[in-house]
Amino acid sequence: MKARYDELDDSEKEHIHTLIEEKYRSELKEWESMKKAKPQEYTPEQVEIALRQGAAILQSSADSISEKFKMACSILLCGPAEDGELQVYSVHAGKTFTNGLIWPDTAPTEYANIEKSFIAFANQVYPGSTVPEPETTP
Questions:
Q1: What is the DSSP string of 64-115?
Q2: How far is CA 35 from CA 39, 47, 49, in A?
Q3: Which residues pair with 93 in a beta bridge?
Q4: pLDDT 10s digit of each residue in the chain, 138 long?
């Protein structure tokens, strides 16, 4: 998908950015009206499905932000997964010049520490969730 996007000319990319912006504004307006209504609770399964479906939108947003500001962009989300365990979801835009890696691949230990920190924070937001067991390396 990214390769196809890179093949588009500037006017096509601008059109896509405009569509994303219009969709964002529409969704924001809907969200603001929903804030006034009673909050709806979502099951972890519903959140998991929404995240899978929204991955392309999040990636497109990260790519647009990266292109617009000429900066690397990462979007990280953390919350309970289907099994109630806290999970970090992320998308990244911007790859290293030398080998085309994204942030988690260039600094896996440091990125893992950031995920652990984010999970610790999310554990305070969603106290009924479970925290993943630390990975052990042989």
A1: HHHHHHTS-EEEEEEEE-TTSBEEEEEEEE---TTT---HHHHSHHHHHHHH
A2: 7, 18, 22
A3: 73
A4: 777 878 888 998 898 889 999 989 888 888 787 777 666 677 777 877 887 888 889 999 999 999 999 999 999 999 888 778 899 999 999 999 999 999 999 999 999 999 999 999 999 998 888 887 766 555
Q: Helix, strand or coil for residue 24?
A: helix
Q: What's the predicted TM-score (pTM) here? A: 0.62
In the beta sheet, which residues pair with residue 86?
80
Per the structure block, which two tokens stand in for 94? 């911007």
CA dihedral 54, 55, 56, 62 (to 10 degrees): 110
- Contact indicator for 92, 73 with CB cutoff of 8 Å: yes
The two three-digit tokens of residue 77, written as one number: 């989300």
Cβ neighbours of residue 20 under 8 Å, at least 6 residues apart? 57, 60, 61, 64
